[in-house]
Amino acid sequence: MEVCTDFTTRRQIRKALREIQFGAIPGLVASCNNNSDKTYISNKMAEEHSNPELEQKLKTITDEESLSNMLLETTDFHDRRKIRSAIREQRKKKLGNHEGSSSPIRTVKPKKAPKKELNLDGITDESVLRQMLEESDDYEDKKKIRAAIKDIISKARDVAGDIIMKEEEAYEEKFRHQEEEAEKVNK
Fold this sequence. Notes:
The chain is mainly α. It has helices at 7-22, 28-34, 39-48, 52-60, 64-73, 77-95, 126-135, 139-186.
């Protein structure tokens, strides 16, 4: 097919293509030629592909999630289009009728409960503090719990160090005492 530069010839070619493509639908070519109703073609094509079973399902389903699942399962373009439209309608119903207002839709955030004071004074078990750390959502509380865990670990190290030092001193004392007794026996 050659490239045509004459606009009237192009119009005639496009007209012939429309007649071939949409000729089976009466009145469709006339509406294409006068450009009075551009949605006429898409509406006629949608009527050709109407699916009464799907339309009944869409009327009965009120859950957006099940509509989304239907959308994923469907491959037909026109059915998918109807399902997306139904999803949009469900969202509008869910949000309420805010079309008339000029102000944007505002979501109301629930007020946070007053913050409880974290009391870590009586807790000396590291596992309890670790459990509290996992359950806490507040950054400042987590910071305090981590500091308490570090204190417990350092105290445990100090206590263990003191015990080891005492045991070493006791061993050295016992060793010295045995050496002194051995010297007394040898004299």
